[in-house]
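Hi R.,

Here's the chain you asked about this morning:
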Amino acid sequence: MEKQERLHTLSRTGHSCHRCAKSRSRQQSDCPERHGLDPGACGVRSRILGSGQCIPFAKGTYKLGETNRTECLECPAGTYQPLLGGSECIRCGAGNYSANTLSCEPCQVVEFCAAGTTVGVRCPLAHSTTLGLGARGGYDCVCQAGYFLGNSSCEVCPTGTDCSSVGFSVASLPLLPGWWRLQNSTQLERCFATSNCTGGSHADELCGIGYEGPFCGSCAAVQNGTRYHRSVGRCKPCEGSVVPAIIGVLLALGIPLMLGLAFR
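And the predicted structure, written out as tokens:
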């Protein structure tokens, strides 16, 4: 039916209705009723051309409601219509913007876009950015590489950290091996030669296996069921530790049992 409406011809007129010029669309200077034509002759999604042909409303425009009115209305700011003959415009969702009435694009890096916007808003903090395209709000802004979120600002990462990617905070500061810090502290210290500081992003997991305490300088009393002691400057498992003992018992019981089953 719509196709028939688009091809409909008025045989008794020499006038046509085409897309109103942008500067004149509100005045309807080229609309059919201006020439004494039937406004509804082309259907609800088409208009009359000079040759009497019916064509659909142009992209980026729409017709107001299911009426016989023939205004070619431009889509409002923050909306778009990519198809011909649109009866309404589409609102850009959060994370997108509409710089024109024909398309909706993902919000650019370093910016965030609320729903129905025509331009993105830049992340407010200096040295901040977003993780990629399509940020929806200020909560998607993070500090750039080389910086971390400190006291409401992006601060330069201290020596001993690896801030080669984005989005770090005080809690997640990634330490290089050989460095240690207290939780939620930006004061970094070098570890001792007898320590085992493995680095990482969690302040409570900076020590190697068998080590604990400040600067990872102490041997763990018990870690995962194993006791450790210092031997030749390093922390090593104690003989008779809980886990090795359990494993020994299981082997002692399991091997004879398996041999007995094999010779049955």
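The longest strand covers residues 228-231.

Let me know if you need anything else.
M.
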